[in-house]
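User: My collaborator sent over this chain with a note saying "see what the structure looks like." That's all I know about it. Can you take a look?
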Amino acid sequence: MEYTKVSFSIKPNTQAAQEILTAQLAQFTFDSFEETPDGLNAYIPTSEYSEQDVKSIQILHGDEFIISFEAEAIPDQNWNETWEKYYFDPIVIGNKCVIHSAFHTDVPKAQYHILIEPKMAFGTGHHETTGLMVKHIIEMDFANKNVLDMGSGTGILGILAAMRGAKKVLGIDIEEWAFNNANENISSNNIINMEVQCGDASLLGDQKFDIILANINRNILLEDISKYKQVLSDGGTLLLSGFYTNDLVAIDKECTANNLIKKTLKEDNNWVAVAYMLIK
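Assistant: Without extra context I'll predict from the sequence alone. Here is the result:
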């Protein structure tokens, strides 16, 4: 799939400006963001990019910041080579989980070793949200649990859940390349109790899950929390990430409306991961 990178120059380039810009872009289908010395890079499938959408966001028309942007299409590429170039070290999370690729030769010892060939799918452990989700998963009880991994990307979270003793794991991702990549990673890690489907929350049926993992952007979470509730067992856990600290009020409000009570919260560099429990 071809992506378009939209590079924003922000003056003054503050954390607040980057967060506001990210939140306003997320209302469209931008799904990845990268902070830069000059501002922010945002990525969106080329087929869904609209210059008019970008021009319409509110922060571009305010007086507090001067923001300009330019867009360029990025052809599909060998994402393993890209990942190796920029992220050549294995990553250790929580002192218990090491995430690495096949090209790594000096891999630290850890309780859980996850082999990931990321290609273009999100979820290598380097982003704060993935790391926060991994830390939660390491601390949670997955023994004999049925688990749903929404927006599964590389499959990393579902794979770790399986390693932690989950009975069965279902991953769902809307992107075909993520679906294919997750299946490759499931095989590479010798996971036999995880399957992946290509689609969105409309695939959810009558099956109930003890734990639901969803590391997706804010807007999709707000739209789908009520759908997650319908397939979450009473007393089950919904673990959410993919949003900033200042989005937590909106997430909390939607979860409360769906009888989901906050249990634990972790933060890293203004990103958040929160676990909620479903009550009757």
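A starting point for your reply to your collaborator: Residues 176 and 198 are 6 Å apart (CA to CA).
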